[in-house]
């Protein structure tokens, strides 16, 4: 059985779920993509529907955008990532610099355009995000192997430095 839900908004939030027992279960990689995509859509919906509330988390928005872009095979520049945060460009660029200094992101100059610098998640940050997405998927879907004690979930040093 396939369920497709579209909310009446300018940019529809769509959730698709399958409950066909003959279908192979999604891979861990697919669960990560689904959870990251759902989180990004829910944050976008929250910004539109709850615009009067003061809520900002530009680093999380950047990490989600970068993770999803990498999954699609799309390279992201510092400027693009700063815009994804939904904050002024200068603020976004400052946050990207902080993430690079912390080792959460790595950067590489564009060989074709000296004005542009590409950014990507460090392998440790990607692994930490995927660990988080899998735990969310296991919790929401009641998948076997979910951590019951959240204090036992390993912290990523690169990400934890920005959250304390």
What is the C-alpha radius of gyration, as a whole number of Å? 17 Å
- Residue-averaged pLDDT: 74
Please trace the helix and strand order, writing H or E for each element: EEHHEHHEEHH
**Tally of strands:** 5
- Principal-axis shape equals globular
- In the sheet with the most strands, the strands line up as 3-5-4
Oligomeric state as shown: single chain
Descriptive report:
There is one protein chain. With 164 residues, this protein is an alpha+beta fold. Helix content is 51%, strand content 13%. It contains six helices and five strands. The chain has helices at 28-49, 58-72, 78-84, 89-102, 123-141, 157-163; strands at 2-6, 14-18, 76-77, 105-109, 117-121. A three-stranded antiparallel β-sheet has the order 3-5-4. A two-stranded antiparallel ribbon has the order 1-2. Helix 1 crosses helix 5. The longest helix is centred in the N-terminal third of the chain and has 22 residues, at 28-49. The relative contact order is 0.12. Mean pLDDT is 74; it is low at 1-16 and 148-164.
Keywords:
5 strands; globular; disordered N terminus; 164 residues; single chain; 3-stranded antiparallel β-sheet; alpha+beta
Give the SSE layout.
Elements: E1 2-6, E2 14-18, H1 28-49, H2 58-72, E3 76-77, H3 78-84, H4 89-102, E4 105-109, E5 117-121, H5 123-141, H6 157-163
Helix pairs in contact: 1-2, 1-5, 3-4
Brief account:
The chain has 164 residues and is an alpha+beta fold. The chain has six helices and five strands; from the N terminus they run E-E-H-H-E-H-H-E-E-H-H.
């Amino acid at each position: 059985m396939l369920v497709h839900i579209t909310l009446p908004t300018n940019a529809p939030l769509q959730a698709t779920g399958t409950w066909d027992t003959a279908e192979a279960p999604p891979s861990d990689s697919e669960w990560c993509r689904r959870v990251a995509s759902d989180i990004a859509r829910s944050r976008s919906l929250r910004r539109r529907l709850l615009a009067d509330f003061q809520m900002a988390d530009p680093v999380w928005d950047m990490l989600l955008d970068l993770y999803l872009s990498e999954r699609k095979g799309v390279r992201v520049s510092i400027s693009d990532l700063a815009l994804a945060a939904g904050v002024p460009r200068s603020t976004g660029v400052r946050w990207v610099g902080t993430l690079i200094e912390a080792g959460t992101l790595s950067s590489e100059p564009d060989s074709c355009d000296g004005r542009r610098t590409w950014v990507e998640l460090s392998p440790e940050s990607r692994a930490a995000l995927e660990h988080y997405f899998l735990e969310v998927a296991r919790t929401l879907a009641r998948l076997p192997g979910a951590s019951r004690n959240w204090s036992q979930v390993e912290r990523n040093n690169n990400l934890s430095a920005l959250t304390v």
